[in-house]
Specification:
Protein name: Nucleotidase
Strand order of the largest sheet: 6-5-4-1-15-16
Helix content: 10-25%
Mean pLDDT: 91
Shape: globular
Subcellular location: Cell envelope
Radius of gyration: 26 Å
Family: Belongs to the 5'-nucleotidase family.
Catalytic activity: a ribonucleoside 3'-phosphate + H2O = a ribonucleoside + phosphate; a nucleoside 2',3'-cyclic phosphate + H2O = a nucleoside 3'-phosphate + H(+)
Keywords: Hydrolase, Metal-binding, Multifunctional enzyme, Nucleotide-binding, Signal
Strand content: 25-35%
Number of helices: 17
Length: 610
């Protein structure tokens, strides 16, 4: 896949260059005397005069995940959470307009750090239901909104690859700004498959433009998480390696300021263990190891970091990092002061902060622009597909075996069992894994809609079947049980503080269906699984099973043991979300009595915690 040669290409791929984009240019007139001085000797300081200085702001978002409106398509109402955050590009647009009005539009840039086209039913609809790749297909709502707001560049996120490369390429074509990925390489040529960087000129009142380079870096984990979409097509080397390659080039090309937009967290940790020789959350390591970077817009981790200073080990210079909260809840502002010295602009001050989108109203220009698309998706998700005899909820799913998670597992196990019927593995028992992806998902008693079923599975994961032994299953469960905070016998148990030990997210805790077991949370990690049984008998370590598992886990996501190396006996290209929807449609009536049971529970020395 060659370097994209469309509207943003600056130099040929053979020279190792990337894109050149004239971003916001020119600034309002400064003081008349200073402007006059600059006109006498452009860019040169006169004796007794103040140094030539210029200030500008780079705004940043990340992990927008298909959010344009302040709307939750799974609850069918305005978004809200316990902190009363708001979401969406319509809110971001209002913040951006206010900053541009204050600073002067020509003194600002707007960038993003990835994960743009996956996450809501709005983005799903235009990837799968009314796809942008169809002949005379629509323009993606995220492209429309970001174009209207006036983004200057965006890094690729790992979720950009969820729908396959053709959808991503079409989205790229529809954007009026470049998608950057210096470490997204063509598998054959090992050259950038996307623009590595963009260059922006900000015109100062001193006759010398400030050249701002934005280097885009994405996550190496794409090679694992979207293996089916990228294997043999693209490779994703480490962020530090590629930053060390590109930053000196950008400086040699005349960049006065270098900003990295990195779809990578700052913690230095990885969820894929030793499956890749790269770090997943490497933004701080990039700042620490690669000289020549002034700021990093951080993404991927879904955390809020207003300002984080990292000292570069080679130069001692402080690099400013900032990560705005996901879904358009925050907007980062990097404020730079530069000074003309020895024939170039140098950064003399850099800082960052975040603005909260709940402080402003939605920009009606954006909501009007995409009103029809929003209405289509609302109508789509509210289609009735069946009924449920009982209400079910994920509220207690992280620490109890609840019926709604059993529903996911039952559908997965039944689907795999039917797929293997009559084949070589038909006689093996089928187990299933599932996670609590959302603590607010619900299936109501009565009518069940697409949004109810889809709310159980907000990710575009597909279903696979892998072979696993009883001994490996025990290892798998011990690994999963790390999720619980060790709690001594007799100590009070607060469900709000019991889970997510060491920052493990809910989606990296698996409940298994088809076996029974207890998790003793008083015991250390690695010694928690007790009474592991199959069909009422202690599990035989040598017994062989088929595990129905999502492709994220099967490809190594979360670094669970044994599954990624296990033999694949079946796989499906349809999303698990759609498999659940189809199952509900076929059944007509969802009855928890047919599939729900208490297969696992938390204990302390054999006594149930709940």
């Amino acid at each position: 896949m060659p370097l994209n040669r469309r509207k943003f290409l600056g130099r040929s791929a053979a020279t190792g260059a990337g894109v050149a984009l004239a971003g916001a240019v020119a600034a309002p007139l400064a003081e008349a005397a200073e402007a006059a001085d600059a006109a006498v000797v452009p860019g040169a300081a006169r004796p007794g005069k103040r140094p030539r200085r210029y200030s500008f702001t780079v705004m940043g978002t990340t992990d927008l995940h298909g959010n344009v409106f302040n709307w939750d398509y799974f609850t069918d109402k305005e978004f809200d959470d316990k902190d009363h955050n708001d979401v969406g590009l319509a809110k971001i647009s209002t913040l951006v307009s206010a900053v541009r009005k204050e600073k002067g539009r020509r003194n600002t840039l707007l960038i993003d750090a990835g994960d743009t086209i996956q996450g809501t039913q709005l983005s799903y609809y235009y990837a799968k239901v009314d796809p942008i790749t169809a002949a005379r297909g629509p323009v993606h709502p995220m492209a429309q909104a970001m174009n209207a707001i006036g983004y200057d560049a965006a890094a690729l996120g790992n979720h950009e690859f969820n729908y396959g490369i053709p959808v991503l390429r079409k989205f790229e074509e529809q954007c009026d700004f470049p998608l950057l990925g210096a470490n997204a390489l063509d598998a054959k040529t090992q050259r950038p498959a996307f623009a590595p960087y963009s260059m922006h000129r900000l015109r100062t009142p001193h006759g010398r433009d400030v050249r701002v380079a934005v280097l885009g870096l994405t996550n190496p984990g794409i090679a694992i998480w979207d293996k089916a979409n990228v294997q043999g097509k693209m490779t994703f080397p480490g962020l530090e390696e590629q930053a060390a390659k590109w930053v000196p080039r950008l400086r040699s090309m005349g960049a006065d300021v270098v900003i990295v937009s990195a779809h990578s967290g700052s913690s230095g940790t990885s969820s894929y263990g030793d499956q890749l020789p790269y770090i997943e959350n490497a933004a701080a390591l990039v700042a620490e190891q690669v000289p020549g970077i002034d700021a990093i817009l951080v993404g991927h981790a879904h955390t809020e970091i207003p300002e984080y200073l990292v000292e570069n080990k080679k130069t001692g210079k402080k690099v400013v990092l900032s990560e705005p909260l996901k879904w358009g809840q925050r907007l980062t502002l990097f404020d730079f002061d530069v000074e003309w010295s020895k024939g170039r602009w140098r950064v003399v001050k850099a800082g960052a902060k975040v603005l909260n989108s709940n402080a402003v109203a939605e920009d009606r220009r954006i909501t009007r622009l995409l009103g029809d698309e929003h209405k289509k998706v609302v109508a789509y998700v509210n289609q009735v597909i069946g009924t449920s005899k009982e209400a079910m909820s994920t509220a207690e799913g992280p620490y109890k075996d609840v019926a709604i998670i059993d529903l996911i597992n039952h559908v997965q196990a039944e689907t795999v069992r039917a797929a293997l019927a009559g084949g070589a593995f038909a006689k093996l028992p089928v187990l299933s894994q599932a996670s609590c992806f959302s603590r607010t998902a619900k299936i109501p008693a009565g009518e069940v809609t697409i949004r109810d079923a889809a709310g159980l599975y907000p990710f575009e994961n597909t279903l696979e079947a892998r072979l696993i032994t009883g001994a490996q299953l025990k290892d798998y469960l011990e690994f999963s049980a790390r999720y619980y905070v060790r709690t001594a016998v007799g100590a009070p148990v607060d469900p709000a503080k019991l889970t997510n030990a060491d920052g493990i997210p809910d989606y990296n805790y698996d409940a298994l269906y088809g076996v029974t077991y207890e998790i003793d949370i008083a015991q250390p990690v690695g010694s928690r699984i007790t009474k592991l049984r199959f069909e009422g008998k202690d599990l035989d370590p040598k017994a062989e099973f088929v595990l129905a598992v999502n492709n994220y886990r099967a490809s190594g996501g979360g670094n669970f043991p044994h599954v990624a190396a296990g033999k694949q006996v079946w796989a499906n290209s349809d999303e698990i979300r759609n498999t659940i929807i189809s199952w509900v449609k076929a059944k007509g009536t969802v009855d928890p009595a047919e599939f729900a049971s208490v297969g696992w529970r938390l204990t302390r020395e054999g006594a149930p915690v709940f």
